[in-house]
C-alpha cells in the first residue's frame, strides 16, 4: 500500500503571518505515518521551507514553467522551486486549465521539467459537471491521464490527483462509490502502463475534502491521500485531515 499523502493547496492565499499555521500544525501533530505537504503561494515558499526544515512537513509549488529559465515574465521554473527547498509541485490544476488554457501536452512538458529538477509532480485530472452528466467521466479522466503523464513516471516521481472540477470549492463531493469507481479506473490505467510502479503510485482525491468527510474518503480503496484547498488553510481544520489519513 502506498504511503498516504495529505497535501494542502493554499492557492492565492496567505501572507507571512500564515506561517504560524504550519507551526501550529506541527505542534498538534509533530510525527505522523502519512506524508504531509503544504503548497503555499510562491511568495511564501522559501520562508515556509525554512520553518519546515526540522519538521515532517514538505513544501511544494502550485505550478512551474516547462523551461528552466528565459524570457517568461511572471513565471517560475522547476529549478527555482527546488531552489527554495520545495520537493513537490502541483501541475495541471483545473483552475490553471480553465483560466490559462493549460493543455495536457503542456502539463506533460511541465511534469518532465519538474522531474529534471528532482521535484515530485502532482498531476491533476478531473471532469466538469457537464462531462459527468454526459457519462463521460472515465473517458475524460483517462485521456487527461494518458497525455498529461510522461512515459517514464515512477511511484517516487508521480502523484495523481483526481479532482472533479464541480467539487472544488463548492462543498459538493461525489459519493464514496463514485470516488472508488474513478480511483480504481485510474489505478488500472497506471498498472497497465507502468506495471508494479503503477500499483505504488499515489492517487489523491481532491474537491471539498474537509474534517467531516476525510475519514470516509480516506477509507475508499485506491484513495492514497487528499489534495485539500480551503480546509488546508487553518491548522485546526487540516489537522483532522492529516489524522484521518494517518489512521
Ligand atoms: P477545495 O480545493 O478543497 O477547496 O475544494 C481543492 C483543490 O482545488 O485542490
Characterise the protein shown here.
The protein is α/β, with parallel strands linked by helices and 247 residues long. It has a domain at 120-172 and 181-230: TIM Barrel (Alpha-Beta Barrel), CATH 3.20.20.70. The protein is 43% helix and 15% strand. The chain has eleven helices and eight strands. It has helices spanning 19-28, 42-51, 78-84, 94-100, 104-116, 129-133, 137-148, 176-194, 196-200, 214-218, 235-246, and strands at residues 5-9, 35-39, 58-61, 88-91, 120-125, 158-162, 202-206, 225-228. An eight-stranded parallel β-barrel has the order 1-2-3-4-5-6-7-8, surrounded by six helices. Helix 2 links the parallel strand 2 (35-39) and strand 3 (58-61). Helix 1 crosses helix 11, helix 5 crosses helix 7 (137-148) and helix 7 packs parallel to helix 8. It binds 2-phosphoglycolic acid (PGA). 2-phosphoglycolic acid binds at residues 9, 163, 168-169, 206-209, 227-231.
